[in-house]
Amino acid sequence: MKKRNALLAALLLAAGTLFGCSGGEKPASTEGTTKTDKGTIKIGGLFDITGATGDVGTPYAEGEKAYIEYINSKGGVNGYKIELVGQDYAYKIPEAQKLYQKFKSSDKVAAILGWGTGDTEALRQQVAADNIPYFSASYSENLKNLKESPLNFLTAASYSDQARSVLKWIKDNHQGGTPKVALIYNDTAFGKSPIQDAKEFAKEIGVEIVDEQIVDLKALDATSQLLNMQKKNPDYAIIQETWGATATILKDAKKLGIKTQFIGLNWATGEGLLPIAGDAAEGFIGVVTHAFPYEELPGMNEIKEYLASKGEKLEDKNQKFVQGWVTAKILVEGIKLADDPTTGEGIRKGIEKINGLDLGGLAAPVTFTPENHAGTNQIRLAKVENGKFKVFTDYIGY
User: Fold this and answer.
1) Residue 240 CA to chain centroid, in angstroms?
2) 115 exposed, middle or buried (CB, 10 Å; 0-12, 13-18, 19+)?
3) 12: confidence class by pLDDT, cuts 50, 70, 90
4) Which residue in 213, 210, 214, 254 sits closest to 232, CA to CA?
């Protein structure tokens, strides 16, 4: 009897071991669980590191990566770890489309942190069909159209809203007659995005658009364009470029003795402009959608904490790093509010619950609803004084 009982016990033990290895119906053990035991939520990332907008794209991507690493160090999101699957697409639309297919089919991402206007607009029908929420670094007005872009979300004022706010500020502050404005932009979807809206709004409020000039994103000389612009003698010129082309414009304008007040939209603005523009940047006004690292703001504490853990310092980062950090933070907030954060549909509904999200001064508060995917239309303005951007307005609109 003892031998029979011993044999039975051994058989039961073996069966139990096999069952445990199979993972069949046995509930998972809760022993040794951590805050991220529910699994992983994958987020796709389209980065421009080596392309035409890599000057601003590189620190922006670093900010996105940093925030995801930071939130994972805090235990993830509601029991999930966030994995950012990112890759440089060099600002090439075909490469963006190729990577999108990889993100969707192989990586099975639940949302995407995108980049440029051309690629974001090219992908919007696909992300809508695939129900994948998409946070782009493009603030194209077209992305506010929910019929055409139902899965796109804008985390800052659109380029058109930025231009409208600048034109309203010009109208309110100009002394002496009707203000005359020129528009300088590049021949890409990004460059052209706000132009028609700016012209229509200027006409509406009584500002005269007197000239338009095309300057390539990689331009090293803008002399001919500025000479043509000078003939129209504009009081102001609104620039829709990134740092490199903006620096070229400012240096050539200084060389030519042009007195026009240059005002750049958000990608023309930031610390990276200053070393390449030099003293030609003095007096330049820029649209500020996100805070500078040297501003004393509550939201900067998380960034300081993260950087300290990496042995890095806040003064080594720039505004575009903050911009990427904030964009990832807003997406993570949508994941937190999602009933099912593992699906695009669930995350979309979570994002649409964000109401007046306080970003600690790093950017204007954002709100999303099922009827409105434009988080804000608010900007600030800053002026370069003694080689440093100094913010001189509160958040303003039009």
Assistant:
1) 16
2) buried
3) very low
4) 210
pLDDT range class, residue 37, cuts 50, 70, 90: confident
pLDDT of residue 35: 54
pLDDT higher than 90, residue 372: yes
- Residue 18 or residue 341, greater confidence: 341
pTM score: 0.89
223-253 as b/e, with b when 16 or more CB fall inside 10 Å? eebbeebbebebbbbbbbbbbbbbbbbbbbb
Q: What is the C-alpha separation between 235 and 337, in angstroms, rounded?
A: 47
Name all domains of the chain by residue range, CATH numbers in brackets: 39-157+295-367 (3.40.50.2300), 159-288+381-391 (3.40.50.2300)
Cα-based angle 357, 86, 309 (whole degrees, multiple of 5): 65
For 277, other C-beta atoms within 10 Å of its C-beta total 22
Q: What is the mean pLDDT of residues 202-223?
A: 98
Can you give the chain as a three-state secondary structure string? CHHHHHHHHHHHHHHHHHHHHHCCCCCCCCCCCCCCCCEEEEEEEEECCCCCCHHHHHHHHHHHHHHHHHHHHCCCECCEEEEEEEEECCCCHHHHHHHHHHHHHHHCCCEEECCCHHHHHHHHHHHHHHCCCEECCCCCHHHHCCCCCCCEEECCCCHHHHHHHHHHHHHHHCCCCCCEEEEEECCCHHHHCCHHHHHHHHHHHCCEEEEEEECCCCCCCCHHHHHHHHCCCCCEEEEECCHHHHHHHHHHHHHHCCCCEEEECHHHCCCCHHHHHHHHHCCCEEEECECCCCCCCCCHHHHHHHHHHCCCCHHHCCHHHHHHHHHHHHHHHHHHHCCCCCCHHHHHHHHCCCCCECCCCCECCECCECCECECCCCEEEEEEECCEEEECCCCECC
At residue 288, what is the residue type?
V
Q: Is the separation of the CB atoms in 190 and 119 below 8 Å?
A: no
pLDDT digits (tens, 9 = 90+) for 13-23: 333 333 333 33
From CA 356, how far away is CA 366, in angstroms rounded? 5
